[in-house]
Amino acid sequence: MTSLAAEQRRAWLIDRLRSDQRISLAEAAEELGVSEMTVRRDLDTLEHAGGGIRRVRGGALYTGPVSFRGRERSYAAEKARVAEKLLPLVPDSGVIALDSSTTMHQLAQRISGSGELVVVTNGMLAFQALQERPGLTAILTGGAADRRSDSLVGPVATAFLSNIRFSTFFASAAAIDEHGCYENTLEEADIKRAFARSSSRIVIGAHSEKLGNSATAAAVSFDRIDTLASELDPDARELAPYRALVPEIR
């Protein structure tokens, strides 16, 4: 790619970050045909302008809302491994909840419906994935459609959840630190808190890139989380800060 003007470079950086959720200085510099110093200045400008990015060592992360399809393409194999780890925790019967994350969409695609299981979700694609399975009833919350995440959010959704009790809430997160889980929007954090309030057990499944980061809005604190699963081996050093905070790591 030939060198571009500043506005074009920054638009390219935002588009790439929305798609991949992170970018390195070296990669961007090579593709844009400019120096790493130029890319660093562009990223600093975008961060200070509230462009939905956060500078990290060697590059940047995207912290703004990402489309469902964009998130689904990112780390697909790792999310599939997380879903496989969570599948044994899904009961044959009772009522469980799934959030609208791409990781829980992977889980929804694997639930067999071998018993009398009710699955409630605010994820439109998870709901579709659960259709026409014997022994399984899928329920979609009401609410306002958020096309950025293909989810339902808002007061109608949270009011609906207050009337149901779940044995387990399966969820992912935009970011995780030693205090708990975070989301990129207030609406997503609000509905996850509503799911959590109605759940006896909370299981978090997330790609390891989420660990050690924070996002816009706090969702679920570690004093409510029973299981944390990632694509990593449970003994991996990246999970060390969380072993004293959660009863089970997968």
Automatic annotation (TrEMBL):
Q: Which InterPro entries match?
A: Carb_Metab_HTH_regulators (IPR050313), DeoR-like_C (IPR014036), DeoR_HTH (IPR001034), NagB/RpiA_transferase-like (IPR037171), Tscrpt_reg_HTH_DeoR_CS (IPR018356), WH-like_DNA-bd_sf (IPR036388), WH_DNA-bd_sf (IPR036390)
The answer, when asked if RNA-binding is one of the entry's keywords, is no
Q: Which residues form a coiled coil?
A: none
- Tell me, what is one Gene Ontology molecular-function annotation carried by this entry? DNA binding
Q: What keywords are annotated for this sequence in UniProt?
A: DNA-binding, Transcription, Transcription regulation
Please give the Pfam families that the UniProt record associates with this protein. Answer: DeoRC, HTH_DeoR
Domain (HTH deoR-type): residue spans on this chain: 6-62
Name this polypeptide is given? DeoR/GlpR transcriptional regulator
